[in-house]
Amino acid sequence: MGAMGRPPLGRRLAAFGTTIFAEMSALAVRTGAINLGQGFPDTDGPEEVREAAVRALRDGRGNQYPPGPGVPELRTAVTEHQRRWYGLDVDPDTEVLITAGATEAIAASLLALVEPGDEVIALEPYYDSYAACVAMAGGVRVPVTLRPDGDIFRLDLDELRAAVTDRTRLILLNTPHNPTGTVLTHDELAAVAELAVERDLLVVTDEVYEHLVFGTAHTPLVSFPGMRERTVTISSAGKTFSFTGWKVGWVTAAPELVTAVRSAKQYLTYVSAGPFQYAVAEALRLPDAYFDGIREDLRAKRDLLADGLTDAGFQVFRPSGTYFITTDIRPLGETDGFAFCRSLPERCGVVAVPNAVFYDHQDQGSPFVRFAFCKRESVLTEAVGRLKGLAAG
After folding, report:
1. Does the N-terminal peptide bond of residue 72 adopt cis geometry, omega within 30 degrees of 0?
2. Staple partner for 334: which of 58, 122, 191, 329, CB 3.0–4.6 Å?
3. In the chain, what is the greatest distance between 2 CA atoms, to the nearest angstrom?
4. Opening angle at CA 209, ends 297 and 342, nearest 5
């Protein structure tokens, strides 16, 4: 068979198609609905950070290729951040890599660390790029499902242990967890760390929501015994500072792990976001009042939307972190999240995302629907008003 006799898209990615975010955002535009599907803020972050980017542009800093590992100012700021918040000592020259957002950091980490056939354990539901990146690396995805327990989703540690085989290469962890809003407890993280040490596994941990936690503190997995040499920690500026379009992320890890990830990253984007890197360096040094402020602002928005969703008839899993709320639509007499989300814009002018897209076991996620609350208060209030129609209907 000739080259054109085969579908253009290779088998590894054929299953993924267009992301649900593109589909639902297009639906929001077409119907004029309020988009609570995709997780991007509808206001920019701090003015002083935006001005720092403008200043860098004007001063000619970052307009040409920045250094492959990232500009020294940002790598230093990342190490200061890790020390300031978690008491971790990281070498800015050998243990930090700046990436095109956390998405590239995850892709580069998996492409670097996973051989074809290696098993990668991921907490299900998972952010959709995880599955695609495991597939691109030729790995085998092994989901471990977070399940509702009262008003939160919880990790079954026995299920996690049972998922590890002789072919397991790494665990892909996400806490605070998108889409469920679960924040793994200290004891749960300790158990994950013990398992990784016992079975000699690597862990790639996505901590982009580290500052968006409510009523609890984020604890990096790398801080547990035996994890320093086996953990790739990923975070980014987009969620913390509300500049998601800048796509500035970072990896911190032991030197040999950073070297491995950089080997893959250099053939993806090589470098990116030069002037923005200087601005993010300044953002990471903002006073505690900024970080407290964004957390409290989001806590109030979480409560506003959670109360509105409860009043509308949803079962609400009030998140401990992130800026997403997962709901159960079964109290509304619905069971199919896809059908529900596709009809919601016409029914009441609001867009949400079906959690089933974040599952291998789509039946497990079918009744769950995710809403984003990183929007202006007036937008959330309007959305809550529109959603009241569901309860009446």
Report:
1. no
2. 329
3. 63
4. 85
Quote the tokens at residue 82: 């890790």
- Selection from 239, 183, 178 nearest residue 208 by Cα: 239
52 with 283: CB under 8 angstroms?
yes
| Threshold 0.85, pTM exceeds | yes
* Alpha-carbon gap, residue 142 to 63, rounded angstroms: 42
Residue pair 54/215 in contact by the 8 Å Cβ criterion: no
Q: How far is CA 387 from CA 30, 319, 347, 354, in A?
A: 19, 19, 9, 16
Secondary structure of residue 282 in the 3-state scheme? helix
pLDDT tens-digit map of 239-251: 999 999 999 999 9
What stretches in the chain show pLDDT beneath 70? 1-3, 392-393
pLDDT given for residue 40 in this prediction: 86
What is d(CA 356, CA 363) in angstroms, rounded to the nearest whole number? Answer: 7
- Cα 318 versus chain centre, distance: 18
DSSP-derived letter for residue 125 is S
**Over the stretch 82-95, which tens digit does the pLDDT of each residue have?**
999 999 999 999 99
Q: Please state whether beta strands 119-124 and 168-174 pair in parallel, antiparallel, or not at all (unpaired).
A: parallel
Residue type, 96: V
Nearest-angstrom CA–CA distance, 226 and 301: 38
Query: What type of residue sits at position 327?
Result: T
Residue 75, token pair as written in the block = 């790598």
